[in-house]
Amino acid sequence: MSALLATEHFAGPPHWTWYILFYFFLAGLAGGSYFLATLLRYWGVAADEAAARIGYYVAFPATVIGALLLTLDLKQPLRFWHMLFDTTPGQFGLSFNSTTPMSIGVWALLAASVFSLVSFVDALLRDGRLRVGGRRALLPGTAGLVWSVAGSVVYLFIAGYTGVLLSVSNQPIWSDTWALGGLFLASGLSGAAALLLILARYRPGADASRSMLELSERIFAGLELLLLVVVLLTLIDDGTLGKALGFPWILLWLAALVGIVSGLGSTTIHRLRPMPAGAAVAARAQAWALAPTFVLLGILALRAWVIFTAQH
Amino acid sequence: MPPTITPGKSYGFFTDTSVCIGCKACEVACKEWNQLPATQKGFLGDSLDNTGSLDGRNWRHVKFIDNVPDETLGVGNGKAFLLMSDVCKHCTHASCMDVCPTGAIIRTEFDTVFIQEPVCNGCRNCIAACPYDVIDIDPDQNVARKCTLCYDRLQGGMEPACAKACPTESIQFGPLDELRERAQRRLAAVHAQGSTQANLYGHDEKVYGGLNAFFLLMDKPETYKLPSADDALLPQRNNLGGYLGLAGTAVLGLFGAIFALRNRGSLRRAAAAVPPPPAGTPPPAPPPEDESV
Fold first, then answer.
1. At B12, which helix (H) or strand (E)?
2. Chain A residues within 8 A of B226 when measuring between CB atoms
3. Which chain A residues contact residue B96 at CB under 8 A?
4. A277 pLDDT band (50/70/90 cuts)?
5. pLDDT tens, B223-272?
6. Residues B180, B181, B182, CA angle at the centre, nearest 5°?
7. ipTM here
8. Label partner for B91 (CA 20 to 30 A): which of A41, B3, B12, B260?
9. Quick check: A83 and B123 CB within 8 A?
10. Could you give the dihedral angle defined by the CA atoms of residues A110, A116, A118 and A122, in that order, rounded to the nearest 10 degrees?
11. First to last CA, chain A
């Protein structure tokens, strides 16, 4: 039945490789970090502020580095601005094509850069690491709330549009599923929770948000697993599952699965293991760094699996 | 007699693969006129084809499709090798135009699809979208390039170089309406000669709204690595599903994160009695960790 429905693809590969892989990775982390930071600041309690600031500190550099990688991937990097301004002779104006996520994504990336830059400076002011006159925050009160919520919406898009971009093509695997956008967003959220968990070790006070981040990571990993199953089901329907899980790409898929399982199970396992008090504390601290590291590697592997398997 | 070329009318190619002899005069003429450098792909070991595929430097490619049957057939069935001079199809609904983020890909006054090289920035989204594997990066220019249907020659009132050079009139250039009529007559003649498997590809709107470069094929399209009408899909078909999937995941992610913060409500109410610390001060010490999670 599936074979009868199989879509035959004859499109050539666009040769999107390492720059794009790491851009997709950073876009997911930046999006998830900004979103979590906003929730921690405005839905959490005062004690969550330390972890929230970590999120804003992550989002801006990740966005800038990601945009740089995206630019370097262009065959004409100095023409990156052609995505923003139409340079067709006689038609000068803004460049926007609503039928391609790449065009929407470029504008979203520009907006996200502004949102995260302001939030980054705001976090520096709140931490007292930057002093501008007597200001203690760039965006206090309701202005900060509105700014951060708007930025979070943009960043949720940034974390996931890369998957939609791949689907909106005629490439095997990518165009055979509509679920890559959701999958990339879920994994970006999971990765951001993992990254904040790791970085929270180095920031006094951020420990207060650890349990929330751990639970978030598990929820997002569950969502990621669900969407991974949806992706596989849609590939069965289009007859490209065999290509997607062929050797050696299945190794990347398995690495991605290990990352998801790490996100799902690490803290649960430790809670179920009876230990003397001292041993339990030591084991938990170790797992705190180890499991999120596996989660991050899994997210990188997931994107590598999606990007490379379709182009070979 | 080449047709008079008038801006505003639709022009294209009708390629009759039944009379292609694989001489590659079209490839040479294309390279000469467009000043495309020779490529050194070496000996591909694939019949007489050492071009391999269309790309940024090869805008015409004669495909040699090994279709030798196991059993002996009579003379004149055209089954041993299928030959086809491949080229950009200049689709009415062009996938490459759909996804170009810079507006580099435009439709000309001759209804052909053209890449403005000074506008292209080499993002390669068009390569991912083209269902015919036509477009590629020219490593010299570092922009996406493909057949222009000899746009400069059309502007000068000349037919494209490949059609001019084709010795068997396998490649015919002209106004689309005339070419379609000619193709129907040729198909009827080929059928009458006994090749009932012959078919027209891209002459009507079933494939990407119609192709300005359409073909008479001697076998089904997939044999020539052309998507069938059922598989001729535009990339934008996945826009709605992709964005809905993204939005649904965002909503679930939001609920998930709020669930993870569910105990904050009681903590916030408890802290409400105490004034919040002023901005610019370090965050307060953490409360005892919530082990109930």
1. strand B11-16
2. 10
3. none
4. low
5. 999 999 999 999 999 999 999 999 999 999 999 999 998 888 777 777 66
6. 90
7. 0.92
8. B3
9. yes
10. 180
11. 25
Taking the CA atoms of B77, B82, B88 and B89 in sequence, report the sign of the dihedral they define: positive
Residue of B50, B46, B51 lying closest to B66 (CA atoms): B46
Q: Tokens at residue B32, please? A: 């000469």
Taking the CB of residue B250, how many other CB atoms lie within 10 A of it?
Answer: 23
Distance from CA of A268 to the nearest CA of B (A): 9
> Is the pLDDT at A99 greater than 70, yes or no?
yes
Token digits for A169?
């093509």
Query: How distant is the alpha carbon of residue A235 from its chain centre?
Result: 23
Using a CB–CB cutoff of 8 Å, tell me whether A126 touches chain B. yes
Q: Say yes or no for a CB contact (<8 Å) between A216 and B95.
A: no
Domains of chain A: 2-310 (1.20.1630.10)
Q: Which of A109-123, A204-218, B46-60, B254-268 has the highest mean pLDDT?
A: A109-123
List CB contacts (< 8 A) between B116 and chain A: 88
Sign of the C-alpha dihedral computed for residues A173, A178, A183 and A189 taken in this order: positive
Check if the beta carbon of residue B126 is closer than 8 Å to that of residue A75. Answer: no
Q: Is the pTM of the predicted complex or chain greater than 0.80?
A: yes
Which A residues in the span 41-70 are in contact with B, Cβ-Cβ below 8 Å? 43-50, 53
List of chain A residues whose C-beta atoms are within 8 Å of the C-beta of residue B233? 7, 170, 175
Length of chain A: 312
CB contact under 8 A, A43 and B264: yes
Tens of pLDDT, residues B96-108: 999 999 999 999 9
Tell me the residues of chain A between 241 and 260 that have a Cβ less than 8 Å away from chain B.
none
